[in-house]
Specification:
The structure is a homoheptamer of 277-residue chains. The first copy, chain A, has three domains: 92 residues, no CATH class; 41 residues, SH3 type barrels; 86 residues, 2-Layer Sandwich (Alpha-Beta Plaits), CATH 3.30.70. Chain A is α+β, with helices and mostly antiparallel strands. Chain A has five helices and eight strands. Chains A and E meet through helix 2, helix 3, strand 5, strand 6 and helix 4 of A and helix 2, helix 3, strand 3, strand 4 and strand 6 of E. Chains A, B, C, D, E, F, G: It holds the Pfam family MS_channel_1st.
Chain lengths: 277, 277, 277, 277, 277, 277, 277
């Protein structure tokens, strides 16, 4: 016969465990909320702030991302806390919990091997968001795909490339992100002239043509600085490659490069400097 | 001699374990059903919704995928719950379960190493389905194979390429998915002209030819926007590459590109602008 | 002096363990038989059925494969069950089984590292069989080798390539299988013409030549559809590449491609359209 | 003072453990002998028989390989059984075996990481032998090295390449084995002719030349079938590549290819069909 | 009924644990502070000082980095110490902590697999900072990206490349850092001349031209040493490549190279030595 | 108060443990000595003898290598045995050894991850030595480096390449060893002739020239067999590549190849067969 | 109430543990000192001595390196010994150390995954130092970077390449080290001559020119042996590549190669042997 205490003790224990779990979960959720509120308000720890974030409209983006990250963290925390509490309750009921723990361990390890890509994807996604590496509309190079960001998710980022193809890139496979639309771009104009050309004269003509072009519309609205004539970037038996650069508004470097390439080429044609060796 | 209690206690315990397992399994299946019903109804958590899904016919696809994912999750849950219950019953029968747990651990680890590819494949498949990255009939680039999707499975995706070869691609080996049939495509037309050509004139003729072409049938039914003449994309000693782009209906970008390439080339021929340097 | 009970108890326990193991093994084998019978009858779970299998002669193939997979699973199950029972018997005999379990663990982990390739190969082989990705006589691209399948094994697949070399490919190293003999093939004919050619005229002549060719024997018996003239696939300073495609019987796409290439080339010759730029 | 029983009990236990280990080892060795006898007699399980082995002289080879594999398995089994027995004896002597097991575990894991290549090599070697993928004298492509097999070992395979260099290839690094000397080879003859040539005429002449060549000595002794004229394998702006194939005795495909290449080339010369575009 | 001692003992234990944890944390934080103070003062252990750091302005940089590293270490230490103390308190309250430890282990392993990239990133970042491999404004080659460092973080480094693209590079993916702005650079000038040129004469003219160029403004302000004429670096059938080098101020090697290339080329032109073979 | 037995028992136990450890170490060292003596005498197990070792001077090499391997194995065995004995002694002294074992485990795993390369290097080195893959003075291709072996070590092999650079190659990174100085080499002479040449005549002249060259000094002392004229190895639109081979003394294949290339080329010149297409 | 013994026993135990730890640490430090003294004196075990070290100035280098390695080993040993002692003291104080050990294990494994690169770097660095693979001033090829060694560290090696860029290379990423400044270098001079040249005559002239050049200053001071004329290294349709080699002082092979290339080329010019085919 079970005594009253034998019946009561586990019951009290179970109630205590459940209460404790609920309280702990509430505390952890509070902690997460505090953390994400800080994120939303831009108070990221200096450990994670690689870049001065100052562009307008990022406040809302930051708030939305803080919500997303907080939601994921809360789910994981609840799952772990209630799972442990459930096993503790079973143990109070006199169930031998060794096989449960062991099977959890086996499943954990087995899945851990297979799911590491998943965890990598989510962890990378969380940090990309915290560090605000890119947002919707940015032109980025993610290694596997280059194009305009369509959506930033915790597991994958969606990018539409120049052919209109939509790429779903797993965040964990991205080793380096190249963002071409931050504060300014640089249009690098490489123009080949024949080996026999007079280098100084060619550089002068090319620089002059580029300088005039960037003072005229529409380029004048796109560039942010003066044209720099770097000079003879490359010299082979067949050609001299002249290089000019100019700072542009973010995302406009490609259009400026194409326009300047044409202008410089035509100025060289006019001056009789051709590509023939 | 075993006392009645010695006989009864394990029996009661076993009955309790079996009952508990059945109840737990029912609860977990309910949970999974709720989850997959949400999926079927399009109520995916924002954590996993990288893209606005709005194309018609996806409702049915979503429902079918939810059933597939739910079926897999139910099988795994049943297997784990009954496995643990079986070991608990053995323990109640007085069997030393340490070697059973240990052997389960050894088999788990040993298989975990070898089966991680399998788990990766299934996990990738589940997330691809939840995120609705592609469906049957889409033209996708999966890295190992490019072509039209024939079948979307949990472990592998089947794609038929341009030569009619059917590719079985393991979902876990796909790092980035390129889907060329989402909302629109872009036909990128690159036409080389000789270095000595007048760039502005060539761009003008090429743009005009393309603009006229997209107003005529059959191209008029395929394009979604105006032709953009980007200009001199590339400049070498031998050639200037002109680039034009135009938005098209999804999947039609290649046909439009081929047609525009021919039209622009013939317009340049007519104007006496040739590819000869 | 050992009492009778001290002698009897372990004996009874051992008998019970052995009986239990035999019964459990019988049950597991029944389960496996049921599973493989389902496979043999084509009742694979929808989770693993990536493709509509409808070609004749696959019934027998499926049955044979179900037997192979079942045989492997039965061996593994027997080995694990009797191994655990053996250790349990030792424990009943009063042997300290901790070092046995530990050494099993160490050997398991040590071999697990080295044997993961082996397990990967078998798991890949099992799934390839269940999914019926290819059979003997199919022309496949396995990455490491391309050719005609000679034998499908659980660990390796044997393929004979175009030079008659027999390739033994480990199933676990195959990331994507390209099967060129499923339902139909596509002959892709790429013919270069000089840059100065009239594109529309050349496409017309090429298409006409191909269309006539596929109505004549022997090609008429090999193709399954009409010739599609895609147009100018590629345009360089030197050449225009015309592309035509036609559906063919599975495995005949290469012969059709060669024949059509010759026919189209000769038709272009006749029309005076040459490859000279 | 230790009682007699305190002295006797461990002694009896030790004797029992040693006896049991010897008996178990004898049983395991019997099992291995049975297995390898089956291998030697060619009764490999269908799970591991990827290829019909029917060439003469393989019986002896199989027997020798069975002995090699058996010897390795026996050594490993003895080592494990006596190792565990030794630890059990220590435990009977009252030694705390926890640190021994733990250190075995640590060494096992530490070495397991480093030795996985070793285990992979041996496991690959065992399976290569069981599957009879190649033997001494075969011409194989092992990825890292291509040439004639000089020696087949459990850990490494030795191959001598065309320059006389001897390659020691670790079996575990071989992902796919290409064996060029199994039953037959195929000589693939690719002959380029100028773009302006008449394709049908060139194919006819090339095929006729090859057919005559294979009826004359010495080629007549080397080929196993008729010449197949596949036709125009490749078409560029500069050349048409004609392809002919013929089955040859194993290992003779390269000599046949060289001879036929010369014969076909000279026949085309005679007919005035040259490589000039 | 619980006795007073039953109630008091855990209470005392809990108080002791909390006090101990606070003290331990204070000690560890002191230790970290001492370590980072040493770092800030430049007293790094010789184990981690691969390079003589002597450039001005590094003192402040070092101090700031020491604060960053110390902040991270303090957070991790607090988290671990309070986590363990929390579990010890639970244990004092009579809770079975086995499942908690086990679940911590499972989560630890599962995350350990997925989070290893994260830990690698932070560890690499800490050591990069301690070793002072680069700072803001340096021109570095990180493998994935080359350009000017914009920000040095613990997890990622931000670099802006020549096109103005900002690259976020994970510190853990960097295997070798190339810093082009340390103490000096070397401008390597490779000039091709035709094969028929007189090597000694060409070397003489090229060296003379370079030597005169570096004595004139603006190059005179940029170079740090004499021009070295290495001679015929490369000889092919078409060209001889002459090489000259000169030490420059850090970061100016590219401008010097471009200027010298143009000067040397024009001097060779004047002397009638051309690139024509 | 401790009783005499309480004092004596641990003391006796400690003495026993130390004695046992010394005896065990002596036994293990004996075993290793027996093994390495067998190695020194050339009695390697057939499992590890991939090649007939018969060259003179290998006896001494084998003996020296056996000593090296034995020395390493003895150090490892002593370290493990005394380490375990030390922990057993601590346990007899009443110290709680759980944290010691645990910390050993943690250090073991942590180092195991990082040290696996080290263990791989040593294991590869041991097996390379046992299998006698190469010795000092051999010309080998180790993948990372090709040249003459200067030193064979357990962890690294030192090779001097053609430029005099000394390469330190970690044994564990070597997947395949190519040894060019075993018993014989093969000089492969590839000579291109123009497409228009008469193949049979060219082969005849080339073979005759090579045959005469190998009968004259100095080549006569270097070759080991007759010249084999393989024929037209390769046929392109521009050239026919003729191939001849001849067996040479080990390490002389390159000198013979260079000499024969010159001789054959000059004979073809004399016969008016040129490389011009 | 705690008895005196209850109070005293732990106290005595704690004192004993601390004393034992200090003694053990002293012993281990002595052992390390002995080891590193041996290293400093050049008494490295033959297991780790891949190369005869005999160059002057290495004694001091060896001593300094021994100190560096010893310092690292001492730090690690102290950390482990005091860590274990601390946990033992806690255990004597009645603290449940299971969670501490478990958390240490979890942190150890989690960090072990992430820190393996770190441990690899340090282990590689230690062995590179012990084996004396290179020193400051040597010209080395480390795979990721080639240049002059600036600093040899335990974790990274610093190399300055030809452009003056300083490379920080992690020691663990180096698979093979090529040291070009050990005892001697070899200048390999490859000179192309046209196909129509007389091979023997060209070899004669080239060899003669090189032989004269190395007898004159400045080359006479740089070479260590005679010029070897290897002959026709390579033969294509367009060119014959002649090869000559000569041993030089370490690090001078590149200057000698450049000088000899120019001399041989001019001698061939004088003799009328040109590169024109």
């Amino acid at each position: 016969m079970l005594t009253a205490r034998e019946l009561l003790d586990p019951l009290l224990g179970i109630v205590g465990i459940v209460l404790g779990a609920v309280v702990l979960r509430w505390l952890v959720h509070r902690l997460i909320a505090r953390l994400t509120d800080g994120l939303a308000a831009g108070r990221v720890s200096s450990l994670l702030r690689p870049h001065r974030s100052g562009s307008p409209g990022t406040a809302e983006r930051r708030a939305q991302r803080a919500r997303t990250v907080g939601s994921l963290l809360r789910s994981v925390a609840s799952f772990v806390i209630f799972g442990v509490a459930f096993v503790l309750v079973l143990s109070k009921l006199g169930i031998n919990i060794a096989p449960i723990i062991a099977s959890a361990g086996v499943v954990g390890v087995a899945v851990g091997f297979g799911a590491q890509n998943l965890i990598k994807d989510f962890l990378s996604g969380i940090f990309m968001m915290l560090e605000d590496q890119y947002g919707v509309g940015d032109v980025v190079d993610l290694g596997d795909a280059t194009g305009t960001v369509e959506m930033v998710g915790l597991r994958i980022t969606t990018v539409r490339d120049v052919n209109g193809t939509v790429w779903y890139v797993r965040n964990g496979t991205i080793t380096a992100v190249g963002n071409s639309t931050q504060r300014f771009g640089v249009a690098v104009v490489d123009v080949p002239v024949g080996y026999s050309a007079d280098v100084d004269q060619a550089i002068g003509i090319a620089g002059e043509a580029a300088r005039q072009a960037v003072t005229r519309k529409p380029l004048a609205d796109e560039v942010l600085g003066d044209v720099e004539t770097l000079g003879a970037q490359d010299l082979t038996q067949a050609a001299i490659t002249l290089r000019l650069t100019v700072k542009t508004k973010p995302g406009r470097q490609w259009a400026v490069r194409r326009a300047l390439t044409a202008d410089v080429k035509m100025a060289l044609d006019t001056a009789g400097i051709t590509a023939a060796a």
